[in-house]
Amino acid sequence: MRPLILKMEMTLDGFVGQPDEEPGWPTHYYDDDFSSSMLELISGAGVHALGRVAYVGMAPYWQSSDDAFAKPMNEIPKAVFSRTLTEAEADWPETTVYRDVASGMAELKAQDGGPILTYGGAGFAQELTRLGLVDEYRINVHPIAFGTGYRLFGGPMDLELKDVRRFGAGSIAYTYTSG
């Protein structure tokens, strides 16, 4: 069974987003070492899993991007979880829409292939945590504070720290597993 890895960008004060945030705020902290580490993680995924909001925002961007992250984002299959989307973006290849998170993730986990990598969308991440579906958390904490915003977890969690890595621009990457 392949694992589900939740990758999220977080502020020092514990927020993963806010209503009027600047899009792409974490990229200000992507130095060469951090970028290389994230590209390796993203490139190693067997499938990218996204909620509808993240998908709608990311699909047009990655389809027209020449960024180093564009190749794995465009070539690796995508799984989109939405109660409202009926079909995927026609131009973003290998995208499947799932209506139900629990049954869709069970189907994806049962398939052969690399890990399921999910990111973006606080609501989607909270649902994954509430359902206990996440096997590994990759939380990247950046030296910025929002003051208010969206939290990552949908409830109390016991996690076990597996790794900590510090980067030159002040970001710290934490790897946890469910406790």
Structural features, described:
Helix content is 28%, strand content 26%. The protein is of the alpha/beta class and 179 residues long. The protein has one domain (4-178): 3-Layer(aba) Sandwich (Dihydrofolate Reductase, subunit A), CATH 3.40.430. An eight-stranded mixed beta sheet has the order 4-3-2-5-1-6-8-7. Strand 7 (159-166) and strand 8 (172-178) form a beta hairpin. The chain is globular, with a radius of gyration of 15 Å. The relative contact order is 0.27.
Short structural description:
This protein has helices at 32-43, 52-64, 70-75, 101-110, 122-130, and strands at residues 4-11, 47-51, 78-81, 95-98, 116-119, 136-142, 159-166, 172-178. It has 179 residues and is of the alpha/beta class.
